[in-house]
Write a structure and sequence with these properties.
CATH topology: TIM Barrel
CATH class: Alpha Beta
Strand content: 5-15%
Radius of gyration: 18 Å
Number of helices: 9
Number of strands: 10
Distance between the termini: 8 Å
Bound molecules: zinc ion
Largest sheet: 8 strands, parallel, barrel
CATH architecture: Alpha-Beta Barrel
Helix content: 25-40%
Shape: globular
Strand order of the largest sheet: 1-2-3-4-5-6-7-10
Order of helices and strands: EHEHEHEHEHEHHEEEHEH
Low-confidence stretches: none
Structural class: alpha/beta
Mean pLDDT: 95
């Protein structure tokens, strides 16, 4: 089994630098933002930039199917109808277009916050936002099913949508597997109350995902340990194996045969304890059964 493993890498200096950054630390998968995640405004990607990105990726050992874009943080796709909601739909449309230009097959989205209007309203808004974006994208005459939108589970912060597998299942069933898939974040799962600290709990969770959403629709795993306690609803990522989930559970997840095709991407801190290369090495050397 060859583990597809990587981290979120920077695009500073140009989007194609992300490929160099990923290769430099030995990633076999990676994630990027296509723009600054905390700003609404961005420059258009030029065909020149996207050509260099694709060329570098083609000449690398990284399979383009193991590359993923994460939506910026500001949009809220479950918000009540407002200027902010309309802007969020535009960003989603734009990000799908950018993924297509880059040849990246997956776009990860957060499911947003209903801002007090209730989950039912939030889910309706989310479904509408996703459909509107894909329709707008089709109207540009671009091939529609090249990019899948991956729904990411949330940590269960106040008013957030998508912290329960059953809730994501119901959203996924409305949207359909043609254009949508799933990204599971281990820190968010733990913070939302799914105890992944033991092997048997991990297999129970994998079975739940398989029977509800289908493991074939699970396209990316965000491999993050949790600084917050089980069920704390805190979205605080920590170094793999050093947080509240710990080595045992994460090791059994990484080595689960049912997940052997799914790329694992870390979004862990960079501090005096470890950097990205250290977390990669730890997973490869300590947590992987066959390496
Ligand atoms: Zn995310
Ligand atoms: Zn997070």
């Amino acid at each position: 089994m060859t583990l597809k493993l990587g981290v979120h890498v920077s695009i500073s200096g140009g989007i194609s630098h992300s490929v160099d950054n990923a290769l430099e630390i030995g990633c076999s998968a990676f994630q990027i933002f296509t723009r600054s995640p905390r700003q609404w405004k961005t420059k258009e990607l030029t065909p020149h930039e996207t050509d260099i990105f694709k060329e570098k990726l083609d000449n690398s050992p990284i399979n383009p199917k193991s590359v993923v874009v994460h939506m910026p943080y500001l949009p809220n796709l479950s918000a009540p109808t407002s200027e902010m909601y309309e802007k969020s739909i535009l960003v989603l449309t734009d990000e799908v277009t950018r993924c297509n230009m880059l040849g990246v097959p997956y776009l990860i989205i957060h499911l947003g916050s209903h801002l007090g209007q209730g989950p039912k309203n939030g889910i309706n808004q989310l479904v509408n936002a996703c459909r509107k974006s894909l329709d707008a994208y089709s109207d540009l005459g671009l091939p529609r099913n090249k990019v899948k939108i991956l729904l990411e589970n949330s940590a269960g912060q106040k008013n957030s949508i998508g912290s329960r597998i059953e809730e994501i299942q119901s959203i996924f069933h409305i949207l359909g597997q043609n254009d949508f898939g799933l990204c599971l974040d281990t820190c968010h799962l733990f913070a939302a109350g799914y105890d992944l600290s033991t092997g048997s709990n991990v297999s129970t969770l994998i079975d739940l995902v398989d029977s509800s959403i289908g493991l074939e629709n699970l396209k990316i795993i965000h491999l993050n340990d949790s600084k917050g306690d089980l069920g704390s609803n805190l979205d605080r990522h920590y170094h793999v194996g050093l947080g509240k989930i710990g080595e045992g559970g994460l090791k059994s997840l990484i080595n689960n045969k049912k997940l052997s095709q799914v790329p694992f991407i870390m979004e862990t801190p960079i501090d005096s304890i470890r950097n990205d290369a250290d977390n990669l090495e730890f997973v490869r050397n300590v947590l992987t059964d066959s390496h």
